Amino acid sequence: MRIVLGIESSCDETAAALVTEDRRILAQAIASQDDSHAPYGGVVPEIAARAHAERLTPLIGRVLDDAGLSLDDCSAIAATAGPGLIGGVMVGLVTAKALAMASDRPLLAINHLEGHALSPRLADADLQFPYALLLVSGGHCQVLRVDGVGRYRRLATTIDDALGEAFDKTAKILGLGFPGGPAVERLAAEGDAKAVPLPRPLFGSEEPHFSFAGLKSAVLRAHESGKYRAADIAASFQQAAIDCILDRTTRALSAMGEVTALVVAGGVAANRSVRAALEHLAASHGVRFVAPPPALCTDNAAMIAWAGLEWLEKGRPGDALDVAARPRWP
Ligand code: KG4
Ligand code: ZN
């Protein structure tokens, strides 16, 4: 039975997890840095890198202790090698290299987006390729066709802001603090989604992509007008964002051929209204809908360990110890 140690440090969560090839998360730990970044209203890369450096090694020790295992029990060590904030990625990757070298285990340098893309298969053993994936996080907003491990075709991406970024900026405008997504979701539940007229950028457009910058600016204008309640702005924003996602995902689905399921992953997939809307869309297209549990949607190390297990299953040898951390890695 293969067991992989996963390490994630590409943004503001320091995380480690031990996952088995039969989909059991033996142990995991996540240290969130929200409090450190909250005063700045966003993630400060240098603060993030320092926090990862302080926390990662004890976190890995704790996860191994919790599972009653040592590195010798692991088949490989998988770490996020990008894309992300380079300082944090380097902390995780260098730590993984050291552990791989010390324990004579293979190192697997994992693409963070691939971790999100494959995470639904950790949660759902029945999810088969090919599937349509809507990846909505703080840094990305994409629709992909996932044909297999390492085989991804991108059909749409954002031309400006990511969806999570739009949630975070809306939260900042409304003074809801950081991270913004969950706060906007909570406030939206008390508001009227029809109260504030907001644009739906690229809705119905011939081109496949997403755009959220205009929506964010409109949220700012609505707030500054003083005419609307914050809850109504939050609800109207969330509805406009959902309308855009549904329209763009529908378009992508019609362009990608047969798939087994519509899958949503990434931090924004933790949003209940987003999930419900996509579930409805999948049903109307006659495909299954799969969304990992919210804790697997936001950044975590179990998804990195799982991506490592998927690659081991495909026979990937370990990566060279000089593999580089990549701030950008499509
Ligand atoms: O995947 P993730 O944890 O980190 C990145 O790789 O970016 O995604 C974080 C993003 C943040 O923008 C956060 O505000 C958003 O996901 N998010 C949400 C919710 N929970 C997290 N957005 C909307 N509703 C939520 N419940
Ligand atoms: Zn992420």
From TrEMBL:
Q: What is this protein called?
A: tRNA N6-adenosine threonylcarbamoyltransferase
What does this chain do?
Required for the formation of a threonylcarbamoyl group on adenosine at position 37 (t(6)A37) in tRNAs that read codons beginning with adenine. Is involved in the transfer of the threonylcarbamoyl moiety of threonylcarbamoyl-AMP (TC-AMP) to the N6 group of A37, together with TsaE and TsaB. TsaD likely plays a direct catalytic role in this reaction.
Family in the record: Belongs to the KAE1 / TsaD family.
Binding-site list for Fe cation: 112, 116, 299
Q: Which organism is it from?
A: Croceibacterium selenioxidans
Grouped into one coarse class, the protein's main location is cytoplasm
Q: Where in the cell is it found?
A: Cytoplasm
Under SUPFAM superfamilies, the record lists:
Actin-like ATPase domain
